[in-house]
Amino acid sequence: MNIFRLSGDLCHLVAIIILFLKIWKSKSCAGISGKSQVLFAVVFTTRYLDLFTSFISIYNTVMKVVYLASAYATVSLIYLRFRSTFDSESDSFRVEFLLVPVAGLSFLENYAFTPLELFMITKTGEAASITTHYLFFLGLYRALYLGNWLWRYHVEEFFDQIAVVSGVVQTIFYCDFFYLYFTRVIRGSGKMSLP
Amino acid sequence: LQSATYKDEL
Prior knowledge:
The complex is a heterodimer of chains A (about 200) and B (about 10).
Chain A: H1 3-26, H2 34-47, H3 58-81, H4 95-104, H5 117-124, E1 126-127, H6 129-155, E2 158-159, H7 161-186, E3 192-193
Antiparallel strand pairs in A: 1-3
Helix pairs in contact in A: 1-3, 1-6, 2-3, 6-7
Chain B: E1 2-3
């Protein structure tokens, strides 16, 4: 464990909590991509199946269970409890378009982590500030993992190509979002809209 | 450089 990985995981946790509370408190999932949350649930389920096969640490097990439970809880908030507020018109991302590059680059098994909210922002041109904070922490989690891999490469002299390549791909998707976040959300009025 | 799997990561 190093500081990058710990803060990355905590940012991931903060992102999940922000999204859950936003939906819960506002009783609305407007502006949230239900499809991406389903993909998160699928990704966590497939990635964390090793919960049943190998024990790594209490920390690892607890975090995996928390991520899994919160992913399914968020999906149920969107599709069951607050279904009427779900903006399915804007959630028009074609999952099959994601599956094609994923199949082609199947060694990048983390590819489905790419959040479709980023696509929804480009589609609707705006995002509520709370949603951008969620995306910011999600992006920070991926970015901090880059620091973690540099750390592990130097300290442990090991390197996991699949994790690093897929992690870099995921982080690249956040770059333009980070730019907009800092130039508009932090300095501006709070709402993020594209020019 | 040795290859490893970071199974402990989240």
